[in-house]
TrEMBL record:
It comes from Halalkalibacter nanhaiisediminis. It is a multi-pass membrane protein. This is CDP-diacylglycerol--serine O-phosphatidyltransferase. GO terms for cellular component: endomembrane system; membrane. Belongs to the CDP-alcohol phosphatidyltransferase class-I family. It is found in: Endomembrane system. It catalyses: a CDP-1,2-diacyl-sn-glycerol + L-serine = a 1,2-diacyl-sn-glycero-3-phospho-L-serine + CMP + H(+). The chain crosses the membrane at residues 20-44, 90-109, 121-142, 148-166, 178-195, 201-219. The keyword Lipid biosynthesis applies. PANTHER family: CDP-DIACYLGLYCEROL--GLYCEROL-3-PHOSPHATE 3-PHOSPHATIDYLTRANSFERASE-RELATED, CDP-DIACYLGLYCEROL--SERINE O-PHOSPHATIDYLTRANSFERASE. The keyword DNA damage does not apply. Its EC number is 2.7.8.8.
Length: 231
């Protein structure tokens, strides 16, 4: 029973570890791998909370751990990735600008943690840090031909949208489109890496994480469909 309650935290720690690995890959010049690790972190982050509810293992420890993991994987890691791929050319000013992203993200997470749990079921106030960090990762992964000006605009927009009061639908009650989109992203990343011929240096975590996530999505879809049939 105690092990069951720790399963969601294991996924959260996996998310945090992806963030650490992403920073390391970015520092080593493996930018595609760094971006994909952030996306793997998104996958794990989307699972831990739902697993906690499924297993009835919601705890304050899990909530705090999730926030700490998110600020690393979707705040610090994307900012390093953007710095190493673009902002580095501005020297000290570049790293100072890149450092703003986790600051805005930390404020966004703190505000979310003290917000009403009822409102969070239907919408988010401001863009979630997970989505913002994922967008920067995708921009790095697939936006090699885009002007650097686009990177600057998207980076700045994500910073301010995270702390804005814009209401973003959470879609927690519509699981299939959300899961389907994330699965599509990860399969697309895998195909991209194979096409580029860089699979030799690719993080092997994807070979375990992607099948596990697809199995999880299928289980959630079948379970939801069976519940509708019972009703």
């Amino acid at each position: 029973m105690r092990f069951t309650k720790s399963i969601p935290n294991m996924f959260t720690l996996g998310n945090l570890y992806c963030g650490f690995l992403s920073i390391g890959y970015a520092a080593g010049g493996h930018y595609n791998n760094a971006a994909i690790l952030i996306l793997i972190g998104m996958m794990l982050d989307s699972m831990d909370g739902r697993l906690a509810r499924m297993l009835k293992a919601n705890t304050e420890l899990g909530k705090e751990l999730d926030s700490l993991a998110d600020i690393v994987t979707f705040g610090v890691a994307p900012s390093f990735l953007v710095y190493y791929t673009y902002f580095y050319q501005f020297g000290l000013m570049g790293i100072m600008i890149a450092g703003l992203f986790p600051l805005f993200g930390a404020y966004r997470l703190a505000r979310f943690n003290i917000s009403s749990s009822k409102s969070s079921l239907h919408y988010f106030v401001g863009v979630p840090i997970t989505a913002a960090g994922g967008i920067l990762a995708l921009l790095t992964l697939f936006g090699g031909g885009l002007p650097h000006f686009i990177t600057t605009v998207v980076f700045t927009a994500m910073c301010f949208l995270m702390v804005s009061t814009i209401r973003i639908p959470s879609l927690k009650e519509i699981p299939l489109p959300k899961y389907g989109t994330i699965v599509t992203i990860f399969l697309g990343c895998l195909l991209y890496v194979i096409y580029k011929g860089t699979y030799g240096s690719f993080p092997y975590l994807i070979y375990f994480a992607t099948p596990l996530y697809i199995i999880y999505v299928a289980y959630r879809f079948i379970k939801g469909k069976n519940m509708k049939d019972i009703d």
